[in-house]
């Protein structure tokens, strides 16, 4: 093994830079050369490669976003795009590629693998919705960012005796919403994985007020319903007047937590190990805190369920 | 002087609790009794008074929101409401009232003063739009909260080469927006105090891209325009595709900064001093870092202009 | 099951309040009464009990420290002390006790269990040195607190081209030190579990400077060596002039992270479940993210080893 | 005016990078060229200059430390050192120099001015002990960093009913200590500017305990006494058993607050304006929030007193 390339793809996530640093330094530690590819698959097709030395990734471990930048690419889904990518890799004599991103990006990695490119995926997304790994890079940071925001909302909610609805990210997965709800002591959570009953929620709010709670907080995953829609339904059904906050893009940014920094460091180094061992078409992950590898397809074929214990906790601890 | 009452009114602001603590402890230090009034003028009319001892305000100095809670009251604007408030104060033998809030709340305080109630206002609002004082309690915290949020957006903006619009609070005043813009190194700011020209902004963005800037950030005060409206106008005029984030209520919450905690402590103690000296109908404030008093009417009659030096800095430093 | 008591013991840890809230609310949800015991085993012997209702634990979920306060008790280790404790519990008709603390506190809990008191332990300590559970309450927060501090030191270290030594907590376990080292990208780590060779460290520093690193950071666990001793040895052996920072008590405080808040919530509720099921003499814990129970003795008889993968990562990623 | 050089000198302070960015961009905005000088006066003598373009200072506004690095230099105090510096500046055809640092660094700048080099000082130090300006770059950030640390100590102090002593920076000035004390609600503060009486402190602690305070916090400036010495004296005189924390270097680092970022941006741009106007031998500063210039000598000849109002507040608000 001589030359490894690394790119970030899809939505950015905190810790991606720590993963880039880990790939770069562990590969160089093992006597390989490393190239960074800019703007994900777009840069791969266009040949936007740059040699990375240990000092080039100095000081980036704590930075949010990705120094390699990222993009979503339609062109890469075409046969022509794929051929351009393979040609770029050959032109730079790349012996192995590390793709940092979510399951969408892993589908692209899988196509490259099928065309003979040695490729390993590193799961980086704040949604944590990648099967084959207990945790993804960026999720713990996003959870803490959302928690900090909700704590601030709680100050205002309790000062004004108000009902607040906060919308967090998560298109098809309610991990972020459910965990934010438990961590913030929210009174209710709405997730895509669970049927929503507005009447039941209104009953809960009614009991809550009767029990002496002067303010309430509801967390909703964007994939289940928009906060504005929920506000309207609460108004129509129960006459409740709620305030709405959509956390939005702030959930993607920020300096990674220690958990995400360590996870990214481990995953980046482990991905290089896998390439060095001649493996391809796999993603790295953690299962019970241990590093593991799984076929790339696991990421989109598998399904990580929400923990029912947490769903129950929201009810039980918000009395 | 024997008995002092304190209430918070209008929107909550970080540091209000530090002010409540300062009023309570400095008054007791000076041998007075202190009563907290809940939910602002609503509680004043309803007689929601509670005796406060030094330990009752222990541990609240760093907490966001207000332990006395706050509200906006229509009833207090009527003659009957005012009469109820005066009666409550007499029933509790209150010799002086401290009102913590913005200029709207100070108008109510002025009515009480005219009816013979000794009253002193303490300016607490994140908007900093109260004349008669250089700073208001909560503004510095809100500025830092907004800055932290914009720094996170910058991570994503730079990773994706995107144009972001972030909407911050400020209905009639652009202090928060302008200062966030300078502090975050934003490329442009839209404030209510300054005419907006979409063509000029599109030119600026065009030059910025030509100069090698791959992402841009625009800060807009809610009172000037909504972020969504600005996004639409940029699309229509320049074809720009911007992402939008509305910071919303998170700007109101959180633990106060050292600046706000110290300001609130000084203002609370100074307000008690003024009541002890027999003064009334005034607000406390800072001018050139010194504590001063001014007539309550100053708060809504005066006008604090934006600093043109800062407006120029946004242009000059975002090249 | 009718009445449950809860206490915190030993060193305080962030998340203890979230655990107190979870014990209180989940027990009341299950129709039990709850009593808080102040100052750990001291208050247990002295009968410092107070009834807790759901509102009494409102707003504490995010607060550092413990509202029940904590203490270390010599008297409790005597037969007389134990007898007093049992008598207190009987006087208040307590049917089950939850002890939140580390393995030292669990030894006391074990004595109570042997005397017939139904007792369940909840592991709360920033050191993470409790066998029988993958994680302890407070560890993730302490790790992030230490990381934030080390990031600030890095700013000064890199600005002045200096060598910094930072001492973190951990008397017999290097979890905190090792994980801080990986998360902060430290050049070297000194832990109690691993033999220290000053000559080897000087060689590493020498190579590091040769490779162009102008500053370096060493993390040392207090149980391995004091930072000042390490500084002296580096001076004597290699002529290095290091700056020293001892993080100290700040590592214990602060608002818990989302991880610790959720962990504390789960553990508190699960401990109540165990008491409700008639179990005793056990501690709750997590294994592979799932809630489990283990005999209390596991906490001090077992041994959690450091992950060798992380030790290797410190070397590999600091080139 | 064609070419401006900028350097940072003395201890690093948060916001120095924002000042470097402001100098660079405002000078280029005004059609000048800019050179960064590395490692302060050391680099000035050695000719360690590097051309800075607007993109070179992109993304540094929020970073702690200084990208130009800094140093203290003995050699620069010699005639030979000064001559080398002047020669370097001539060799690079520099028409004006901006020195970012404290009053020690300004003495060096004054020497250069006397030798005919156009030079303007920008006050950057966390100690705020520079006369001629109300505020220095880095002070507000250090204050907030210290406050955050003390808040964490408070969690442990209150959980264990303990007396804590925290030592903060400040060799000859008690600004940081006094303001941290007010902001954290400390029970006592020890500053260099004020005579310390251990008997008086013991009386205060005694009264405090009698009044029901179960824990206490004392802030001490390093220049007045070490925390360990204070601990020993409290033990000897009053029998108190205190815990000690020395905040140390963490107070220097971290991302600057909005206040420091804006201050640094204004000062950097204003310093360039002064050079462009042909001024020299001056420092920039703020007086009553307005930008002003003063002779460099003001910085070390003047004296900024502590605000007696704040000293009184510590007593009055800690009852």
From TrEMBL, chains A, B, C, D:
Family per record: Belongs to the phosphofructokinase type A (PFKA) family. ATP-dependent PFK group I subfamily. Prokaryotic clade 'B1' sub-subfamily.
Organism: Dethiosulfovibrio peptidovorans DSM 11002
Keyword Lipid biosynthesis: no
InterPro entries from the UniProt entry: ATP_PFK, ATP_PFK_prok-type, PFKA_ATP_prok, Phosphofructokinase_dom, PKF_sf
Name of the protein this chain belongs to: ATP-dependent 6-phosphofructokinase
Any one annotated GO CC term: 6-phosphofructokinase complex
Gene: pfkA
Keyword Metal-binding: yes
Record: active site: 127 (proton acceptor)
NCBIfam families: PFKA_ATP, PRK03202.1
Activity regulation comment: Allosterically activated by ADP and other diphosphonucleosides, and allosterically inhibited by phosphoenolpyruvate.
Entry's Gene Ontology molecular function annotations: 6-phosphofructokinase activity; AMP binding; ATP binding; fructose-6-phosphate binding; identical protein binding; metal ion binding; monosaccharide binding
Sorted UniProt keywords: Allosteric enzyme, ATP-binding, Cytoplasm, Glycolysis, Kinase, Magnesium, Metal-binding, Nucleotide-binding, Transferase
UniProt binding sites for ATP: 11, 72-73, 102-105
Example GO BP: fructose 6-phosphate metabolic process
EC number per UniProt: 2.7.1.11
Annotated pathway: Carbohydrate degradation; glycolysis; D-glyceraldehyde 3-phosphate and glycerone phosphate from D-glucose: step 3/4
Span of domain Phosphofructokinase: 3-273
Binding positions for Mg(2+) per the UniProt entry: 103
Subcellular localization(s) per the UniProt record: Cytoplasm
Residue numbers binding substrate: 125-127, 162, 169-171, 222, 243, 249-252
Oligomer status and interactors: Homotetramer.
PANTHER family cross-referenced by the UniProt entry: ATP-DEPENDENT 6-PHOSPHOFRUCTOKINASE (PTHR13697:SF4), PHOSPHOFRUCTOKINASE (PTHR13697)
Catalytic activity annotation: beta-D-fructose 6-phosphate + ATP = beta-D-fructose 1,6-bisphosphate + ADP + H(+)
Cross-referenced SUPFAM superfamilies: Phosphofructokinase
Cofactors that this protein relies on: Mg(2+)
Pfam families: PFK (PF00365)
